[in-house]
Amino acid sequence: MSMLGVVLRQLLRFGLYAGVQVLIIGQLSLFGLGWCFLYLGYILFLPLRTPIALQLLLGFAIGLTMDISYDTGGLHAAAAVLLAYLRPWVLRLLTPRDGYDAQDTVNVHQMGWQWFMVYLLLLVSMHHVVYFFLELGSFRHPLLALGRVGVSILFTSVALLIVQLLFFPVRRGRS
Amino acid sequence: MRNLIAFLLRFQGVMLFVLLEVMSLFLFVTNSSYHRAAFFNSANAYAGVVLARRTQVADYFRLDELNRQLLTDNARLRQQLYPPDFARREADSLPVRRDTLGHIIYRHLRPALSEAAVPALAGKSKEAKGLKPRISNYPDTLLLGAAQVPTHDAAYPLVAARVINNSLRAVDNYLTLNVGAADGVQPGLGVMSSSGVVGQVKAVSAHYATVFSLLHSKMAIAAKIKRDGTFGSVKWPGDDFTYALLDYIPRQNRLVRGDSVVTSGYNAVFPEGVFIGTVESFVKEPDKNFWTVRVRLGVDFSRLTYVYVVHNRPRTERDSLEAAATAPEPAPVKPVVKPKIPRP
User: Which residues constitute the domain of residue A12?
Assistant: First the structure.
């Protein structure tokens, strides 16, 4: 795939994730407690070999877009940059026995359920814990924050799993 | 130099991370300060357009809720336009007393206060009312038919009411008031307006009361002439609703045109001294022992709006005493003889 193609593709993904989040998903709330952070899929499903600097910049960009939409200052951006920074560490932690193949992507069909769920839940949990405790600004209402974290992890994970199952190719399986 | 570049490349991730994180947190922490650059919030033009579009679309899905909200609003506004029967029981200004020239002084109720004062006038909350300063604008006494009637009396509440039905032309006329048993009104209580005696409560339901108007063939009000205290009885002859007759004034008494006729307080429905009317004309009829006195009524029954139901004080005790006094002598009770029980 040419360089231009990659750039265009990523721009399109950025627009889609941000648009769907702001226009549709952001309106929903589960049990009045948790929200869906669908835009995290943009960072989580980036190609495996994306340079760390680019990941951080993209995370900052999409986080800031959310902040502008939701008037949260830099809250989303801070959590998203942290997520982008942690992602390579988690990927390294989850390296299969024989390393990543060249064509590997973050794909539930390719990498298997177990790998994918650990990857997803680990990163989403870390992101949400940071996000909600930052949002609260203190540890005054830990139970409320924990409830929000729990419900949001559920919501976001299920939504991202659905995105994976619907839109990611089944073929080119890892054999 | 090369070492520096190598160092920067080696730690580019950490440094960029720290830089971006510090930037984000700075934006987040300064979010609430109002001199923030306007770009980084949803007020900037691009985000504003997007969010406005989203609201437009989302509103379609909330039409049901919006509709219901509008209906409630409409109902509330309509209620303000057409108040229910039970609202507006008192005029905006109430007569309080007379000044030295004889002019009536009115106390104006603020619009917000008149609303608060109406439920407070209902008998039940009377006790609590004395403690609360919120109706301090409400006068202590009202000048009703030239008599000062206390309004803050817990045991004998003065119930403000509005006439919602009235008849003038029949032989027996009745009024309907928008107060009832829930407001402490009972059959038999007196009804008066600020200009004088109106009638007597006939029957009550929970929220309404019917009243014998003074213009009723069976109504007779114990009255007296204020100047010399001669007492008589005011009855309505059944023709003109601005006049009534004062009976039982002995022929030898001198009468003056324009004398005030007030309640005597003999029949304990009204307090003493409530204005009924003024003497208009009087004739001696050859076949009667009493003057025939025409009284111009103080109350204009054709324009009657705000009235008050009064509890008169020693009513029950007095009625029972008088009933006992006029009742036929009871048969002498045979003394009960206790059978003597022999003591063991």
Answer: 3-167
